[in-house]
Amino acid sequence: xxxxxxxxxxxxxxxxxxxxxxxxxxxxxxxxxxxxxxxxxxxxxxxxxxxxxxxxxxxxxxxxxxxxxxxxxxxxxxxxxxxxxxxxxxxxxxxxxxxxxxxxxxxxxxxxxxxxxxxxxxxxxxxxxxxxxxxxxxxxxxxxxxxxxxxxxxxxxxxxxxxxxxxxxxxxxxxxxxxxxxxxxxxxxxxxxxxxxxxxxxxxxxxxxxxxxxxxxxxxxxxxxxxxxxxxxxxxxxxxxxxxxxxxxxxxxxxxxxxxxxxxxxxxxxxxxxxxxxxxxxxxxxxxxxxxxxxxxxxxxxxxxxxxxxxxxxxxxxxxxxxxxxxxxxxxxxxxxxxxxxxxxxxxxxxxxxxxxxxxxxxxxxxxxxxxxxxxxxxxxxxxxxxxxxxxxxxxxxxxxxxxxxxxxxxxxxxxxxxxxxxxxxxxxxxxxxxxxxxxxxxxxxxxxxxxxxxxxxxxxxxxxxxxxxxxxxxxxxxxxxxxxxxxxxxxxxxxxxxxxxxxxxxxxxxxxxxxxxxxxxxxxxxxxxxxxxxxxxxxxxxxxxxxxxxxxxxxxxxxxxxxxxxxxxxxxxxxxxxxxxxxxxxxxxxxxxxxxxxxxxxxxxxxxxxxxxxxxxxxxxxxxxxxxxxxxxxxxxxxxxxxxxxxxxxxxxxxxxxxxxxxxxxxxxxxxxxxxxxxxxxxxxxxxxxxxxxxx
Length: 697
Hints:
There is one protein chain. It is built from 24 helices and 22 strands. With 697 residues, the protein is of the alpha/beta class. Helix 15 (419-423) links the parallel strand 10 and strand 11. The longest helix is centred in the middle third of the chain and has 24 residues, at 310-333. The protein starts with a helix and ends with a helix.
C-alpha cells in the first residue's frame, strides 16, 4: 500500500460530505480490502507457485464495483461482468473460497476447474445472480439485454409478481464499447426501453491500446450524447461520494422503468492487464498518475467521520487479510476434480441445472409418443413447423419467437405466418438486423427461464452470431451444470431452385463441432414435427436446420402426426431396406438417395439428427450389407460424412467388402446458376452410379 505517499492530506478531505448513511460503509471498506488481499495473494504467491495460471487484478476498479453490487438487492436482478469483475462478485456474497479456488482451478467453485477462474458465474437463488460471463470481450452485453427483456416479459405478458423493480446490469471496459455485442445490446435496450444498466469502467487502455482507438476521443458517454432512449451519466469512479451518487442515480433510473442507462466511470488500472503484462507501454509519469487516483486511500479519508481511528481501519484490513488466507486454505484443501468427470454436463443428463431453462423452474413435459397419429391431408414442411410452433405456444406461455421479419411478414419462408396476429407482438416479434443480438438475447431469455425460438434467416447469416452460439453451447459444461440456456435456434439453409454463396450454405458440421448443441436435420414434415416438439420441450440448446428445398417439396409432405408426436434425438429412420449396400444421408439428399436406390437392394438411412447421430443403426446396417455410401450436400473435406466414414472404418472394417465412400459437393461455395448447381450437388444419376460401382467392387 502507498497511502503515506499518495493520499491527499486529511485536512483537504474535511469539506466533503459525510458518508451516505444508506450504505454499509464498513462492509464496503472490508470488501475492497478483501479484493486487494486476494489480488496480492495471487500475484505474490499463487502465480509464482503456479497455482494460479491466469490472473487479472481489479485494483482501481474495486471500490466502484462494490458500490454497485451493494445496490443490486432485488432477487431477480442479474449482472454479467468480465474478467476484472471479482469485486462485484464479492459484493453479491460469493463464497471467497469459491472465488479463489476457481482461480486455482480447484474442484467446486464456478466451474469445477473447467474454465479460467476469472470467468465468473454465480447462481444466487437468494439474491442477485451473476450470469455466466464469457471469455470474449463484449460477449456479455446481449445476454444481459435478453435477461432485461425477460424481466419485462414476466412483468407485462405473464403478469408475474416481483418483477417491477428487477434490473439487468452489464459491466464492460472502455475497449468493449467497440464490439458488435455492445452496439447490438444498446440497440435492443433502447428500442425496447429495457431495464438495463450499462456500467462502463474506463481505465483508458484495452491492454495497451488507448481508448481513443475504441471510440472517438476515448469517451463513449460523450459520443452517445444524442443516442435516443438512453440516460447517460459519466464521472470519477475513484471518488467515493461521486461514484456512490452516480451509481444510485443510474440504478434508480433503471428501476423506475425509465429505460436503459449508461454509466461511465473513469478508474485507474493499477496493475497490468494481466499478471504477465509488464506495462512497458506506460511511462513512469503515467503509472504515478494512476496510483495518485487509487480509490482506497480516498475511501479511507472519506470514511474518517465514521471509522473512528486508524486502529479500526487497520482492523478492517487485517480481518480481510485473515479471511483471504482462510479462504486460500479452504480452496487448496479442495483438490482437483476427478478427470473422469470432465465429460459430464455437455448435455442435459437428468441432473437439472441450478439456473436457466424452464426445467430449473419446475417444468414437466407433457406426455409424448413417437408413434404418429396421422391427421387429414398431407401438409408441407412449412405448415408442419408452423402448426407445431402454434400448438406449443398455446400450451406454454414461456415460448417466444423472434428474428428478422418473423412478425407481420411471417418470415421470409412464411414459417411464422399468422403467429404474431394470434399471440401478439410480445411473443412473436421482429428484431434489429443483428444475429449477435438475436442469439445473444435468446441466451439471456433462456437463462431467465423462457423458451426462446430465435430464427436466423439463412445458414450463412449465422456467422456474426458464432461467438454467442459457441458460448451458449459450452455453458452447461463450463459452469459444471450451474447454468444452461436451452433454446431452439431455427436455421433455414441449403439450395432451393438455384444456389449462391450467401443463402444456400449448409455446413451443418460447424454446429456439430460446437459442444453442447443438439442438431436436427429433418427431411420431411412428419420428422420436422417430431423433432421440433422434442426440442421445444427439451433442456438443451438445439439447432433446427430447415432445408429450403424441402419446405414445400412434394416428397417431404406428410399427414400431420398429431399434437403429442415427438421424436427422440439420435434415432435414425430406415426409409428403404435391402441387402447389398447401406446409404447414409439426411436432409434434401434423402429423396434423391431413395430414387437412386430404386431397382437396387439397399438400406437407405435418414439420420434425422446429426448430434447425436445413430451410430448403432448405421453400424448394424453396414455389418449386414457390407458396403457403405454416405451422401450429403455439404463439402467433402471435413464434412460430417467424414465422421461417419471414420466410425464405420474403425468399428466395422472387417465387415466391409468395399471401401467406405462419400458423395458430396466439391469443396466450393454453392454456385448460383441452376446448371452449375445441378452439376455440383449430388444428383440421382451420380448416386445411382456410385451405388453400382460399390456393389460391383
